[in-house]
Amino acid sequence: MHWTVPLMNLYCYLPHLLMAQIKAGDGVVNLDEGPQPYAFMAFYDRVRDRPARARGERVYIIFVGSVVGITTEQHTREAAMWGCPDAYSIRTPSLIRAYSIWRHWLRLLAKLVYQHPELDDAGLVRLGRQSLPAANVLEESVETEFHPEAPPMFAPPQEEVCIDVEEDVEEDVEEDVEEDVEEDVEDDIGEDVEDDLSNDLSNDLSKQPSNDLSNETISGEGLVSEVFGSDTDEVEFMLVEYEDEM
Predict the structure, then answer these.
(1) CA-to-CA distance for 150 and 68, rounded, in angstroms?
(2) pTM of the shown model
(3) Residue 203 phi/psi, 5° resolution?
(4) Is 143 helix (H, G, I), strand (E, B) or coil?
């Protein structure tokens, strides 16, 4: 497989690197912003999804040649370096290392474009080629860089959060039981009070007539006065008439 573009495409990419460097200022340029060659984007996606290489597969970086980029094919590398006196390529142990070193190369070109506006595209790439150290030194000096959207395979494990569900459930059950007991006690107390009040009332009603009858003297006059009230003249006349007949 190969992710390469003609050298002319790298020349066309230099103005975008300049704009990215101006935006970054003294900081590190963001290579993921702005337009970039499709082959570079495809290589970045491959590193994001599958950073490992196949067994026995060799990975080459072509910095300067008739084509530039990353390839796993020996003949592509040889064809890129044929007839190019300034050609430079190295072999890397993995795709992730090729990703790291290649982006180091693009950031170097971005700084050179910013620092040397007097040079043309070919002169900038030639100066960048001269700034690169030998292959072994370059491999040791460049730190491994991972794709910003790659899954966190190398991130430290997150701390486990333990939640005591059983204790919380037991506490909730105890609170519910206590509330139910309190409600039952209140209901029992209310029923007892109502029963006591009803019993007292029935006792009072049952006792009141007997007391009134025992305390009062039942007489004819009293009975007549209770029945007819104060109008007793007519009653006396009726009683006298009844006695005469007897």
Answers:
(1) 24
(2) 0.61
(3) -65, -40
(4) coil
